[in-house]
Specification:
about 140 residues; alpha/beta; 5-stranded parallel beta sheet; 6 helices; globular
């Protein structure tokens, strides 16, 4: 039996959050949801395979989350996709240096695009989890 891919959606806009959650569940993904970076940090012990990360959130931004989470060290197999309306080369570079594998402009995406990307990234995952968070 195939392992179910776990996706963490970090998004403060409820309509976008619900749209992504609905379609990802429809296609068989396990979905976790966080409304901001602080809540996303609390979700990390569940060790998602993929994180869909809004970069512009009140209080604790996507970059703040990436810096605090230290995913490249603690959870190196998690794939992070930044989804934002911030189209800045500096933000893109900072995100990439913190482990983001794709940077998408939110207004250019629809839920079907997100499902295709998650499927692509999921196909790159190993069939059995071997990573353990480093304390």
């Amino acid at each position: 039996m195939a392992r179910v891919i776990k996706v963490l959606i970090v998004e403060d806009d409820p309509s976008i959050q619900n749209a992504y959650q609905f379609i990802l569940k429809k296609y068989g993904y396990e979905v976790l949801v966080a409304e901001d970076g602080v809540e996303a940090l609390r979700q990390l012990p569940a060790v998602p395979d993929i994180i869909l990360l809004d970069m512009l959130m009140p209080g604790f931004s996507g970059l703040d989350f990436l810096r605090e989470a230290e995913l490249q060290v603690r959870y190196p197999r998690i794939k992070v996709v930044a989804i934002s309306n911030i189209d800045s080369e500096r933000v893109r570079a900072d995100a990439a240096s913190l482990g983001v594998v794709r940077y998408l402009i939110k207004v250019e995406q629809n839920p079907s695009d997100i499902v295709r990307l998650v499927a692509e990234l999921a196909s790159e995952q190993l069939p059995v989890r071997t990573d353990v968070p480093v304390e």
